[in-house]
TrEMBL record:
Name of one Pfam family that matches: HATPase_c
Catalytic activity: ATP + protein L-histidine = ADP + protein N-phospho-L-histidine
Domain of life from the UniProt record: Bacteria
UniProt name for this protein: histidine kinase
Naturally occurring in which organism (per UniProt): Fuscovulum ytuae
EC identifiers of the protein: 2.7.13.3
PROSITE patterns documented for this protein: HIS_KIN (PS50109)
Length: 449
């Protein structure tokens, strides 16, 4: 629309100026024909015919500083306005054209211009605006019709271009995405970039890269799932075999043979570690942990039960476990799952301290703030190696000791996340390691009030 206005307005103004110049030219020709005659006296009929042909009422020529009324006829009404085309600029022409179009009345105007071929100093005519306005309206309608026709053709071509360059490729991308979603493991359904528009081609290339990566990840996860199923079956059968072997190993401890007596504890320990590995693998291989059954209980009592269950308190023990939890602190959580989390953390800390061959201390503390309950488990062990910290909560990758699987911390972190909380490593250096458990106080499903 802006382009139409920028084209239409100057065009209609130029048409009005050409129309007036044509009237001036016709009036000049009529006047010169009359002046060229030997007898300057003409009849009223001829003068009327010359004025009608020029479509004016009067013609005035100024030659040699003399102003001469060459042709004249009665003017039906007073002159409304005067327009001097010699001094009119673009804005004046646009303004005067708009005035004519906006005024439907037929008025008489005076028009002044330069004669053609320098036949005098100026020429002046009087004429009606009615025929001028009618001619301008007809010209404007022709311009608008032509503009509308060009707009329709342009819109149709633009529609075809958009369909071919944008809509078609976008529909193709949508079809590929739909087909890929039905079978993401099928590499044949990965889109092949072919768009001609650079932006769409970049989008197709990004989609192809994402689909390729996703297909590879799905294949890898499928292989890992199959491998996990096989490992679970093997671990189940191996656990049964090792349990039987453990029973026979226990009997070897009662043997009177000194060599057997010395080897039996090592054999029993090896079998016990193998059984624990099988049980951890089977536990982690389950599809998911059950949702926590939230109840309210005293945290100190739970912590003491964990410490007692892990066998602390013996006189010859080199590792001590302290509980620094307020007696009145009541939290809302799944007691059984939290027991497993604390057991894993304490067991790992104990094994880390015992591996150094020195004595040490483990401390369980607890408290609360406005939003969370917190439980801190710290020890005076040697700290975690840098490699273990990088994959601390990832199964089979976060083991901190030789022969460890990292399942304990992975399971513990998963159980805490099931409560809507988080398990974090606060510090781990030469002075010891400290873990922090945060459990939100917000209400949860399954709460027992």
């Amino acid at each position: 629309m802006l382009a139409e206005i920028l084209i239409f307005v100057p065009s209609i103004a130029r048409y009005r100026a050409d129309y007036l110049l044509l009237r001036l030219e016709k009036a000049q020709i009529a006047s010169l024909a009359l002046l060229a005659a030997e007898d300057a006296t003409v009849g009223e009929a001829l003068e009327s015919e010359l004025l009608k042909n020029a479509e004016v009422f009067n013609v005035v020529l100024r030659r040699d500083e003399v102003r001469q009324l060459v042709l004249s006829s009665p003017i039906p009404q007073p002159i409304y306005d005067t327009y001097d085309l010699r001094l009119a600029g673009p804005w004046e022409l646009i303004r005067d054209a708009s005035t004519v179009l906006a005024d439907p009345e037929n008025r008489v105007i005076r028009v002044i211009g330069n004669p053609v071929q320098d036949a005098g100093l100026l020429i002046e005519i009087t004429m009606e605006t009615g025929p001028l306005r009618k001619a301008m309206v007809e010209y404007g309608l022709r311009i608008l019709f032509l503009s509308a026709l060009i707009s329709v053709v342009t819109a149709f071509l633009l529609f075809l271009a958009v369909q071919r360059l944008l809509v078609g490729p976008i529909r193709r991308v949508v079809r590929h995405m739909t087909a890929y979603a039905e079978a993401p493991e099928d590499a044949r359904r990965v889109i092949q970039p072919s768009a001609g528009v650079e932006e769409l081609r970049v989008a197709e290339e990004a989609l192809a890269a994402m689909q390729t990566q996703l297909t590879g990840a799905l294949r890898q996860k499928e292989r890992l799932a199959q491998l996990g199923g096989a490992v679970a079956k093997i671990s189940h059968d191996l656990r049964n075999i090792l349990t039987t072997a453990q029973l026979f190993a226990d009997r070897l401890e009662a043997s009177a043979d000194p060599a057997v007596t010395r080897a039996a504890p090592k054999l029993v320990g090896s079998i016990q570690r193998a059984v624990s590995l099988c049980e951890s693998t089977l536990a982690f291989g389950k599809a998911e942990e059950p949702p926590p059954l939230l109840t309210r209980f005293a945290l100190r009592r739970l912590a003491e039960d964990v410490v007692e269950g892990e066998g602390f308190g013996a006189e010859a023990a080199t590792v001590a476990c302290l509980v620094d939890v307020p007696a009145g602190l009541v939290i809302r959580a799944d007691a059984e799952q939290l027991h497993r989390v604390l057991s894993n953390l304490i067991r790992n800390a104990r094994q880390a301290i015992e591996a150094t061959g020195q004595s040490g201390t483990i401390e369980i503390s607890g408290g609360e703030d406005e939003r969370d309950w917190w439980i801190r488990v710290g020890d005076t062990g040697p700290g975690l190696p840098p490699k273990a910290r990088e994959h601390l909560f990832e199964a089979f990758q976060g083991g901190a000791r030789k022969g460890g699987t990292g399942l304990g911390l992975a399971i513990a972190a998963e159980l805490v996340r099931g409560h809507g909380g988080r398990l974090e490593l606060m510090r781990s250096d030469a002075e010891g390691t400290e873990f922090l458990i945060r459990l939100p106080k917000g209400p949860g499903a399954g709460e027992d009030d």
